[in-house]
Amino acid sequence: MNDVDFAKASIHELDAEYTASLKCLERIPETLFEYRPHEKSMALGYLALLVAEIPLWVYHIASGNDIDFATYTHFQPKTTGELVDHFKSNQQKAIEVLKGIQDGDLVGTFSLKNNGTVLHSEPRRDSISSSINHMVHHRGQLTVYMRLNNIPVPSIYGPSADDRTFG
C-alpha cells in the first residue's frame, strides 16, 4: 500500500473512532478529573486527555516530527468543554495533515524521546497505526472509569448497557 492509500485508510479509521470517543469525552465531568480507581491508576482527567491528544500525536508523526517529553506540553483542560474542543481540534489537525500526504512522505521513523534520549522508535506508518490503537485502548479504559462513576457509557461499536441504540 502506498503512502496516499495508507493515509486515506488512517483517515477512515480516525473518522470511525471519532464519534464514540467524542461521546465519551463529552460525558466526563471536570469534577472527576482527579478521580483514580486505584493509587497506581492514572487520573480520569489525564486518561481523558490522552484520548483527546492522541490525534495530535498522529499529526506530529505524519508531519515528520518526533515527540520529546521534555518539550512536549500537554494541554491542561479546566472544563469538559475545553477537553472536547481540544479533541475536535486535534482530530481536525490529524485529518488535514493526512489528506496532504503524498507517496514517500511517510518514509522514515518516528521517535518518542525524553530529553533527547530515544525511548521508542518505529516506522512512521507503524507509529500512526499504533497511535490510533493506543487511543482506542485508552478509550476502553475510560469507559471502565465511567462505569465506576455511574457515568452512562455510550454506544461504541454497538449498544452499551446504558445506551441501547446504535450510532
Automatic annotation (TrEMBL):
InterPro entries: DinB (IPR007837), DinB/YfiT-like (IPR034660). Keywords: Metal-binding. It holds the Pfam family DinB. Belongs to the DinB family. This is DinB family protein. It comes from Mucilaginibacter roseus. The lineage of its organism: Bacteria, Pseudomonadati, Bacteroidota, Sphingobacteriia, Sphingobacteriales.
